[in-house]
Structures are given as C-alpha cells and as structure tokens.
Amino acid sequence: MIKNKQKNKNIASEVFYHSMMLPGMVFVLLFNIIPMFGIIMAFEDYKPGKGFLGSKFVGLKHYKYLFQIPDGFNIFRNTLVIAVGKILLGTLMAIIFSILLNEIRHAWLKKSVQTIVYLPHFLSWVILATAIKNLFRLDGFVNAILGTGINFLGSNSFFQPLLIGSDVWKEFGYNSVVYLAALTAIDPGLHEAAKIDGANWWERVFHVTLPGMRSVIILMFAMNLGGILNAGFDQVYNLYTTPVYETGDIIDTYVYRAGITAMQYSFATAIGLMKSVIAFVLMMIANGLAKRYTDSKIF
Questions:
Q1: Which of 227, 288, 273 has its CA nearest to residue 36?
Q2: What is the DSSP code (8-state) at residue 230?
Q3: Average confidence (pLDDT) per 10 residues, the chain, 299 residues
Q4: Where are the domains positioned within the chain?
Q5: Of 61, 70, 248, 257, which one has the fewest beta carbons inside 10 Å?
Q6: What global pTM score does this model have?
Q7: How far is 177 from 169, CA to CA, in rounded Å?
Q8: Fold held by 66-293
C-alpha cells in the first residue's frame, strides 16, 4: 500500500515537471521540427505556386550546380578561414585573459575589468557594425591615428582580419568565464609546491595552470568544432559590401542572397541542408574527441 502511494506520488511529480516542459516542447515542434519538412525543396525545382507536392523533383541537381559555380569554392574557403580564425584566436585570447584576470587580487578591480570586457558580448552586431564602420572608414579614427588612407572595409586583404579581430574582441571576455571556473578547480597547493621548487610565474603557467585547464580547453574546442561552418551571419551581413564578396562572402550570407534576394529557394535550401549535415557529422566527431580525451562528453 505504501509502495503504491509512493509510486503515485512520483508519477504526479513527473507529470508536473513534464507539464512545465510542454510550452518549450510545443515551441520546438512548431519552429524546429515541422519546418524540417521543407528540406524537400533541396531536391526539387520548387515553385511557390505549385507547392511542395506539385514542384518538379530534380534530385541532386542543385548540389551539382553548387560545385560548378565559380563562387562555390570561395564561399566554403571564406567560411572555414573566418570560422577557424575566430575559434583559434578567440580561444587563445580567452585563456590568456582568464589567466591574467585570475592574478588580480583586488576584488573591486577584478570585477570592474570583468564588467568592461564582458559588455561587448551583450551588444548587437547592428550596433557594433556601425561603430566599426565609423572607426575603420577612410576618414575614420584608425586611419587618422595611423596616418594612412586604407579602405579596411572595402579591401579583400584587410576584411577577413577585421572580421576575425572584431569578433574576438567582442566575445573573448565572455568566453573566458568557463576558463575562470576551470582555474578555481586547480589545487593552490600545486602552485605553492612549484614555488618551493623554484618555478617562476611562466613555468607555473605552463606546468601547473595549463595542464589543470586541459580537459576544459579540449571540451570547449570540441564543442566549437560543430559550429565551424557558422562564421557569423550577423557580423558579416552588417559589415560586408560588394567589393569584398571575394573574401567576405560566407555560406550563410550566400544562402540569404540566393534564397531571399534572388528567390532561388531550392538552391538555398540545398546549401543550408548540406551545411547542417556537415555540422552534424562534425558534432559527432567532436563528441567522440571530448569523450576520448576528457572525462566528459557533449551529449
């Protein structure tokens, strides 16, 4: 009798918690699951007037076309270069900043620095893009300080470094939160023992701090690997112009122009689907790497 009452109580408790999840699940169903049926457009010559069932089935036609167009290689190259640059440099800057910030002993100074550095993360690229354009335009502050007349936003040589650098500046402070948490898990006794053995600050960083952060660094890098084809649509769209399409055009911006502007719905869907499949494969690889080299996994 007591067991039955406990079982009923557990069921009632589970129903309550599941009912709390229901609005979120409905949201996912409406905006994530049901729209997945639209991927059929990737294999059709889709015509809005004919709908999904009335449009002509063309198989892999759009994928073949993607690899035949002159812009195809540039799009994937730009996406990889920009995304990898953001991941590598962003991770490096976040690690360095977290180590240096951890050395600050005055709580008020530490909190002040954290607040200032975290702030750009919460600003939209619509706002930041305007600021960056004003700073790097021909008669902007940067050219005035350097005494040059470089067209940073219109030069294929400078646009990719500008994208990578501005994104790292925006995100490295917020990304350092995870590494700061990892630093608190390192036993202070290890640093004390290293000091007694005569190790200086640099030696303690390389032989105590970084090995202590190793599992977190690998896990974060593995998680970023799944999004390697996401080079930042918001940033690129708000900063790029026609002269820098050669080095600034990425998969997401190309899909936007092809699908929305040029109304090539099937072609844009095909590119988006291929990107999603590649991202899924990379995420599975990342999960395997995290499981193999750390004590945790992504999912």
A1: 273
A2: -
A3: 57 74 87 83 84 83 81 85 91 92 85 88 90 89 86 88 92 88 85 85 87 83 77 88 87 82 82 83 78 68
A4: 2-57, 66-293
A5: 70
A6: 0.81
A7: 15
A8: MetI-like fold (1.10.3720)
